[in-house]
Design goal:
about 350 residues; alpha+beta; Transferase(Phosphotransferase), domain 1; 5-stranded antiparallel sheet; 13 helices; about 20% strand; globular
Length: about 350
């Protein structure tokens, strides 16, 4: 039995005493509970279990889901805890953006004799790590992909907001700016989140519907700049074992590979999975021209670099001139001979360096 705990005195850890003897049943439980749990809490994935206090348990599931099988390897869980510690240290130093909170993974356990038994304990939303407390009473948390995905009633949440008379164009444009700034602000402090549209939870103001901030989940997917952590005086003990999907430490001794990874996260997580669906809604539902939307997004992106007074040299040390689109066909079919990424010579939403500086 393994244990890797961040908050040893957390009241949410008592649940594990009851779960550990039942680890062999976990693969069966995950098929019995998903619909019930999803109806109770739409912020959860299908392989998570919910306690009455709001804490969750993320389970291993050794089945192919989208691009990979979903067991939780032990060192992947270790990185979830180590990356949570980084978020906590950054928050205490005032380095996290003001409108961003990280949902902490507080413990991990496994039964050594049972494959795929590792599970992660995640704290409730109101205990998310940030510079101040989460405004849970003032906001409604919504998973980003829920905004544009059709509900069982045939309409998306954005369409419902439009029918309700809210200024959906302003909401979307604010979301685009906040989402781009989220990734770049965190990248600047050495915490590069895997902020695709299922890991990103937007906090919508209960009165106006306007976005107030973000909750980030799935800390194991984050990349950590070890050199930045050393500058801040933060100890980091992340594990690099690619065969276990444990790849959180960025390769700081290989600058070109580091830039490639950061660019992939920016392109794949932010632009492919968040910005593109929002831009598509502006064009298809609100009648905006593609060129107008493209120029708006490009200006938001360029403005961040200009406002931060970054140089072209700094930019090119972090963002590669080529961009990466996931080759989902090859990934889904398990074709090993083909690269899991396609390279693109240009990006419709990201201007070239010479257009920024």
């Amino acid at each position: 039995m393994g244990e890797y705990t961040l908050l040893k005195n957390s009241p949410h850890l008592s649940m594990t005493l009851y779960l550990i003897p039942y680890a062999p049943l976990i693969p069966f439980v995950i098929f019995l509970l998903p619909m019930y749990l999803s109806l109770r809490n739409p912020l959860m994935s299908k392989r998570s279990m919910l306690r009455e206090d709001g804490s969750q348990i993320k389970l291993s599931l050794d089945l192919q889901i989208t691009s990979r099988r979903r067991p939780i390897h032990w060192n992947e869980a270790v990185n979830a805890i180590e990356n949570t510690k980084v978020a906590l240290e950054l928050a205490e130093r005032g380095l996290l953006p003001e409108n961003v909170w990280v949902i902490p993974d507080i413990a991990a356990y496994k039964t050594d004799s049972i494959p795929s038994s590792t599970f992660i304990v995640r704290a409730p939303l109101n205990e998310a790590i940030g510079r101040d407390s989460v405004p849970v009473n003032e906001c409604i948390p919504v998973v980003m992909c829920s905004l544009w995905s059709n509900s069982v009633f045939g309409r998306s949440l954005l369409e419902d907001m439009q029918v309700a008379g809210l200024d959906v164009e302003e909401i979307i444009k604010t979301l685009i700016e906040m989402t781009i700034y989220l990734q770049l602000d965190l990248m600047e402090v050495g915490f590069v989140p895997e902020s695709h549209s299922q890991n990103l939870i937007v906090l919508l103001d209960r009165q106006t519907g306007m976005p107030r901030g973000f909750l980030l989940r799935d800390c194991e997917g984050a990349k950590i700049d070890v050199e930045k952590m050393q500058e801040f005086g933060i100890d980091y003990n992340g594990v690099f074992k690619p065969e276990e999907h444990a790849t959180s430490p960025l390769p700081v001794k290989n600058p070109s590979l580091k830039a490639e990874i950061i660019t992939k996260y920016l392109h794949h997580c932010i632009f492919d999975y968040n910005i593109y669906p929002l831009a598509k809604f502006l064009v298809e539902r609100l009648g905006k021209s593609p060129e107008e939307v493209k120029e708006f997004v490009r200006e938001v992106y360029a403005r961040w670099w200009r406002d931060k007074r970054k140089t072209r040299e700094e930019y090119e040390s972090l963002i590669t001139p080529q961009f990466y689109r996931r080759n989902l066909g090859a990934i889904g079919l398990g074709i090993k001979e083909v690269s899991p990424y396609r390279t693109l010579p240009s990006h419709p939403f990201i201007p070239r360096a010479e257009e920024i500086f």
